[in-house]
Amino acid sequence: MGKDQELDKKMYVLDTNVLLHEPLAYLSFQEHDVVIPMTVLEELDHIKDRKRDVSRDARIAIRSLDGVLKDASPEEMLDGVRLPSVQSSNESGPLSRGKLIIVNDHLFPDSISGLPGNENDHIIINCAVRLQKQHAHTKVVLVTKDINMRLKAKGAGLQFVEDYRTDQLIDDIKLLSLGYKKFTGDFWQSVGACTSEQQGRYTLHHVPKSLLPDVFCNEYLVDDSEHFAARITHYDETNITFKDLGVERLMHQSAWGVQPKNVYQGMAMDALLDPNIELVILTGPAGCGKTLLALASALEMIIEKGVYDKVIVTRNTPEIAESIGFLPGTEEEKMAPWLAAITDTLEVLHKNDESPISSRNYIMEKANIQFKSVNFMRGRSIQNAVVILDESQNLTASQLKTIITRCGEGTKLICTGNLAQIDSNYLTPLTSGLTYIVERFKHFEGSATINLNGVVRSRLASFAEENL
C-alpha cells in the first residue's frame, strides 16, 4: 500500500461511552478499521449486570461484538476481523468494510501518553497514542463522547479526537426546527395565486410550493400582523395546504382552565388538543409553560373529553440516582422526588380550590395519573393514554426510540425538554435525543414541534433566563 493510500485509511479507537450511546456504533465507520481496547470490553462487562438502563446497551454491544468475533482465533482478533459488508444505496454492489480489531492495552504498562495512574480513560488514551506511533501513515482517531477525555487526549499528544456524531442530524443548534415560521409583515401580501375551501369550522388554503419551499407537516405559520396564524396540513411537489387558524382563535383555546399567554403557547395547545397528532414535542427555556400546557391538555382530553383513559408521566432520573431502588415505597413513591414538577403543576392548576392538595389527589385518581420510571418502560405496550416524557433532553436517541415504540393505538406522546439544561455527561444540545427526534419526525404527519419562545413563569424567571 502506498503512502497516499495509507493516509486515506483511518483507524478509529472507540471509547466505552460510544458503545453505550449506540451499541452498534462500530458498524458506522465504512471502510475504516475500528479498534476496541480490552479496557472497553472490561468496562462493558462491569456495566452489563448493573440495574441501570445502560446495562441493556452494554449487553447488546457485547452480543453484537461476539457475533463478529465468535469464530475468530486469538491471532485473527488481534490482526483484525473483517466487518460484515452492507449493500450500497446505488446498487453498485456491497460496500467494503474495514476490520474490527481487539487490542490488549494491558500489554503496555508504560505510559507513552504521559498520563498518570491506571485510570481506564488514561489506559484507552495511551492505547490510541501508541497506535498513532505504530501506524505513522494512518490517521488514528479516538472517538469518545466524554468532553474532558477529548481534552486530555489532545493534551497527551493525540492528533485526532472526535465526538461520535453519526446520529447527529444538524451541525448547529440554531438550525433546529422551531416548529413554526414567522413572516415579516403581512403574510397575505406575499401570496399570489390561492384557492380555498371550507372544511368544518376552518378554511383550507392551497398555495404554490414555491411560496414556502421548505415546509413540513403540522408546521405553524405566523406573521407580524398578530392576526394571521395557520398550520400546514399537507404538501406535495407543487402545492401546500394549510388550515387558517387565526391568532384570536388560538388565544381563546382553553384546557382545564388554562389559556395561552402568547401565540407560541396557542400553537402548542392546538397541537396538544388534536388527537390526530400523536407526538407533540415542546422545547424552550425554563418557565415557558411546557409542563403546565402538557398536563392541562392531558386532563382536558381525559376527564372532560374522554379521548384517553390515563396519563403516564415519566422522565429520566439523573445518573447519580439512576437506580431508584434505594428509595422507600412503591415505584410511584420512588419516582415522586423526580416528578415534583408534575405535582407542583397540578397544585397550580387547582390553586383556587378550597383544598388544593385534596383536589390534586382527587384529580390524580380521576385522571388515573401514573408515575413510571423510564427504566421500566421497556417491553410495555401502552394503549389509549397520554404519555408525558419530561426532561427528555437528557435521553439519547436510542432511549427515546425505546419509549416511542412503546406507544400503541390511541396513545399520544408529549416530549418536553430544555436543551440548555442537559445533565448527562455525554450529551450536548446537538447530540441529545430530543434534538434527534425533532429533526427525524418533522416530516411525519402525526407529529408537531413547538418551541415555546418566552418565559411566562415570573418576572424574576424571565430576567434570569435572559441575563444569567
Automatic annotation (TrEMBL):
Keywords: ATP-binding, Nucleotide-binding. The keyword Nucleotide-binding applies. SMART domains: PINc. Pfam families: PhoH, PIN_4. InterPro entries: P-loop_NTPase, PhoH, PhoH2-like, PIN-like_dom_sf, PIN_dom. The keyword Cell membrane does not apply. Gene3D superfamilies: 5'-nuclease, P-loop containing nucleotide triphosphate hydrolases. Residues 10-151 form the PIN domain. Belongs to the PhoH family. In the N-terminal section; belongs to the PINc/VapC protein family. This is PhoH-like ATPase. It comes from Pseudoalteromonas aurantia 208.
